[in-house]
Amino acid sequence: MKKLIGIAILTSMLAACATDPYTGESKVAKTAWGTGIGTAVGAGVGALIGGEKGALIGAGVGAATGAATGGYMDLQARELRQQLQGTGVQLQKLDNGQILLVMPSNITFATDSAVFQTGFNNILDSVAIVLKKYDKTLINVTGHTDSTGSDAYNLNLSQQRAAAVGNYLNLRGVNASRLIVRGMGESMPIASNDTEAGRAQNRRVELSIQQVN
Q: What pLDDT digit, counting tens, does each position of 73-127 carry?
């Protein structure tokens, strides 16, 4: 029995091995991990119900369920990459399965302003297209500033910027119940505020996309 379950898991993992088209790295995608975990769970339940035959049937059902969970975010990330290519938006796949979109200041808002720069609405249009298609997600919209100015002023500015992005996505068809909007001011820098280059990196809007059941 253990041997049969092990073979089922190994087969599902090997089938999902692929070369990342963006890095050229050969790896097991998150879809594969989902498939493998689903296979293990399904096989175990199937074995309890119907012995070896049940294990194989359960492995197949579990693999399909696991692949669907991992693949949903992978497919969404791929479409976002295609839509956002060349825009300056940075896309990261996080270890917890979330998708992070980092939108830097040079394409979002002018200094000391919550009004979109020219062309930023077009970028958000592209994001909205994908978010509407993959509607089993929550989107955290978070505004950030550099350390120039008072804490209170920067917090308010970051909130205004996040709200502007959230409102625009809602106008483009993303359900407001999926949007969590907040400003963090200068409290979460990703670079040093001692240089202009560092401050420019800290002035950003981030969209964190997570799947919900």
A: 999 999 999 999 999 999 999 999 999 999 999 999 988 999 999 999 999 999 9
Sequence-ordered list of residues with C-beta below 8 angstroms from that of 126, at least 6 positions apart, any chain: 83, 84, 87
Closest CA to 8 of 48, 81, 64, 76: 64
Tokens read off for 84? 């956002």
pTM, rounded to two decimals:
0.70
- Coil vs helix vs strand at 96: coil
Q: CA 126, CA 110: separation in Å to the nearest integer?
A: 21
Neighbours of 125 (CB within 10 A): 13
Q: How far apart are CA 97 and CA 70, in angstroms?
A: 8
Please report, for the chain, the start and end positions of each structural domain, with discontinuous segments joined by +. Answer: 2-71, 86-211
Cα separation, 188 vs 209, in Å, equals 18
Q: What architecture does CATH give domain 86-211?
A: 2-Layer Sandwich (3.30)
Among 102, 87, 113, 89, smallest CA distance to 205 is for 102
pLDDT over 90 for what percent of the chain?
A: 66
Q: Where are the alpha helices (DSSP H) in the chain?
A: 2-15, 30-84, 120-133, 151-171, 196-202
Question: Could you give the CA distance from residue 204 to residue 85 in angstroms, rounded to a whole number?
Answer: 18
**Whole-number average pLDDT of the chain:** 81
